[in-house]
Amino acid sequence: MTVESRLAEIVGKNRVSGDPGELDAFSLDHSYVGKKAPALIVRPENPEEVQGIVKLANEMDLSLVPVSSGTPRFRGDSVPSVDGAVIVDLSQMDKIMWINRRNRVALVEPGVTFGDLQAELDKHGLRAMFPLAPKSSKSVIGAYMEREPFTVPRYAWDLGDPVAGAEFVLGDGNTMRTGGAAGPAATLEAQRATGGAQKLPMSPISMDFRRIAQGSSGSFGVCNWISLRCELLPEHEQVFFSEADSPAPLMEAARRFLNLRLADDLYVVNRLTFASLLKVEPDKIEALKEKLPPYILVASVAGFGDLAKDQFNYKAADLKDEAKKLKLPFSSRIGGVTGAAYLSQVVRKCSAEPYWKLRRKGDCRELFFLAPPNKAAGYVEQALALAKKGGFNPDGVGVYLQMAVHGAVCHCGLDYFVSPEKAEALKPLFMETSKALFENGAYFSRPYGPWSGLVYPRYETFVKYANKLKAVFDPKGVMNPGKLCFKEN
Amino acid sequence: MAIPLEAKKALEEALGAENISDDPGVIETYSHMNGLGSAASGYWWARPAAVALPGSTEEVQKVVKICNEFGLRFKAHSTGWICCALATSKNCVLLDMRRMDGLEFVEPEGYVITEPYATAGETQVEAMKLGYTPHLVGAGPNASNLASATSMQGTGGNSVRTSMNERNPLAIEWVLPSGEILRLGSVDTPNAGWFCGDGPGPSLRGMMRGAVGNIGGNGVFTKIALKLYPWYGPPYECEGHPPFFKTKELPLSFVRYVSWDDRDQECDALYRLGETEILDYTNRWSASALMSSLATTNQEYREMKEKGDLHKVFPNGYWTFFFNASSKRQYDYNVKVFEHVINDTGGVIVDPKDLGDPAYEVAVQNAVRSQWIAKSAYMPTGANTGVPPLTYETIDQCLKYALDETIDVKKEWIETNKVYNDGEDNAYACLDENGHFLHVEHACHADYAEPEAEALGIIFKGYGRALEKNLGAAYMSMPAGWSKRKEYSNYMVAIQRMIDPNRTADSMLTNLAELTGA
């Protein structure tokens, strides 16, 4: 029997595709990972089917590439590295399995998007932690399993947040649950019967597979579902802005506001990113951009739960006082954009179509890394100077600085807005900038695509043990071979 | 067992003769520990073959390689809080990490790089000068923060703000049982520093530990960076002499005891208080625990217990809540919402000062410094052990289900006189991360005059009950839980074999699993 027919036995004929058009959509993305088409796409609808697919892969030496989110894609992690790969498209597994207000928790499958989830959480008075205006097809699991930062750093104790429990089909075909979902009871219902809610992020037995799997581009297994921590939905909420000619004073202010626990959404963007988030047409993006200061701090104030209004009032007053102490302008309006408009369009919202990173030029190349917050501005300036030197207008680079882990780290996102026809020509500058930043201390914690060649030679022992660890969970190397530091098998 | 002469010679050459000892008198001092542990019990703790005092990562590496060469085992021992810090194999070279006590504050990044013998207390003293506090484990300021972050557990009363120590490491330096040095996170990127511990790509922190660490079985953690959290007040200061220090005024700080008659209302209040995000410290204690902190002698403790005054005030246990505000506005809001929630849920608020200055000092020193041990006769019979539940999950699971189960288990041991009758309920609990989860544990006091295994049995009984009643994944960390879900323990064993093919690390968990047939 062929691979296609064996897969069809597991999921049904209509959920296996070898259609060239569909395959082509998975063969390339907006990254510098080379084009490679998969052989097939399989679309499971439940964990049992996922397990069947992984077991078949072990039996027939298949390479599986798990994919949760829809297009557009940017990281190259879902483009196969090897010939004959099978895309495991998890978008059909789109159930919101459980929401519990008392324990502030939701369980979701990989096909659930941020928009789907928040619509349901609204009914329970809860909110999910959103990345900055995710694409409408962005999978919640896809974001969190790749340690994507979210916009409320106060709730990020750990880079793995807000994942609590999870269920995986490991590369060897076995199933494992992590965190509070691990047990001792075998079923979620039995755990809940004694008050459990799959809330614990840490796992039993002196190891944590969830932590290993996060950031691995699906190299260890397939995530069937996660339980994620939610927070209370604000009853009172307002967005404020501050501005500066460079990101440094705004990052200093953001750290201060975070330490005082006054702000919810809290990040720094440049005017191009700000305008791109709010406007769709390129000319309107340009027009708004011209009215804006070079860098903008976005800080939302929220009141929720008991005495929500009192909470909002004290936080707003303290925040204004702190901005005054730092001698920074602080307002609920910037460049003609009100905080209310920003709140309704950006905060806990998915991007309208087209995705905001593609609006201006049709393509975008993402360069991102982690840094201590106090060093983030310096890396931005270094990258923009290199862009200028390399003939790329620095005004065409979007900037997004997002603290996480209670301010221990800052995600530094540089978006090179470029036309599709000029994207390839940008590659030398992109790689030269990446290398210069890396040598200067920028930490590429998710070294996708060509960054792996930059980063991993410095991590010899890490690579050795990461590969040994993969062999424990995926002895035949069926899971997304060739990504990050893992061999192509 | 005696260390082979060739091995001793190699260790002396590596570290200097003054940093190696196999003197029986010295060895004996490494054979007893709080928490029902001593080599004399003959249960599973062992006298080490030798004690080594490495002074650097390179020296740790040398010791580990020598152990590999001579078929010895090794285990790191930092500040040593409970019996898990002892050797569990007779051919073990115990690494006393006291020479590695460095602390480096990285500013303005705002984190600290710590070596194994730096204590949480000294970290906090220095951090407060810079406007920070580290997480403080419940074991007290004398405990190593590195040890709990990498190898043990790491919960404390301020976990509501600073989480528990599985969640606090940034970059990590780790000498594997092979002698190789593995660094996790940003530290191997040139000029990056120690600000991140995950990646690049997958996070190998996941093979370091889970809810509980591998208790020395994974190698030696020689240096880690830890997150720091804001401290709004001036550095903590006190005057006087132990055990009755007097805390100097803490501006914009608030501490109260609260009790409820009704467990459902207590849980409702804890959920709501967590959601307000106002608290910096939470701790549930019984009247018995408060008495053992107030008493200065065992006799005084017994007299207080017989008198029963505190049991009348707190018949169902009580909580200590503390916060330190950054502004008058925040302080006023915090007090208002705190009183609103407590009053709305039938709680009774007690100002600790109304119970006397010592009661206030117990509250505030615990809240700010995790300082409950030095000023108490906590162990009226000379040893204590934790009784399950020793778990984490929701507030409801820990308080509505697990707490009563553990009291029930303990009752049997009290009735048969295997542990001291401290009033049965001596459970302590604390919220983590604004109430997203809760930790509960139960103290019990054992008498050295009793055979230790008798008292120790309560741990196994408690684990068995917890597993039977499905109370918390953390139970499964001990070998008693391994057989419950083999799909976890099999992988842990596989990882252990992968990083330690020669079984050079002295793994308490592996040894215990073999002893108990788990």
UniProtKB/TrEMBL annotation, chain A:
Domain FAD-binding PCMH-type: 34-233
Cofactors, names only: FAD
Keyword hit for S-adenosyl-L-methionine: no
Alphabetically ordered keywords of this record: FAD, Flavoprotein, Oxidoreductase
Any GO MF annotation of the entry: FAD binding
A Pfam family reported for this protein in Swiss-Prot or TrEMBL: FAD-oxidase_C
InterPro entries xrefs: FAD-bd_oxidored_4_C, FAD-bd_PCMH, FAD-bd_PCMH-like_sf, FAD-bd_PCMH_sub1, FAD-bd_PCMH_sub2, FAD-linked_Oxase-like_C, Oxid_FAD_bind_N
Protein name listed in UniProt: FAD/FMN-containing dehydrogenase
Automatic annotation (TrEMBL), chain B:
GO function term, MF aspect, one: D-lactate dehydrogenase (NAD+) activity
Alphabetic keyword roster: FAD, Flavoprotein
Gene Ontology terms describing biological process: lactate catabolic process
Matching SUPFAM superfamilies: FAD-binding/transporter-associated domain-like
Lineage: superkingdom: Bacteria
FAD-binding PCMH-type domain: residues covered: 44-231
Family: Belongs to the FAD-binding oxidoreductase/transferase type 4 family.
Protein name (record): Glycolate oxidase
Taxonomic source organism: Desulfatibacillum alkenivorans DSM 16219
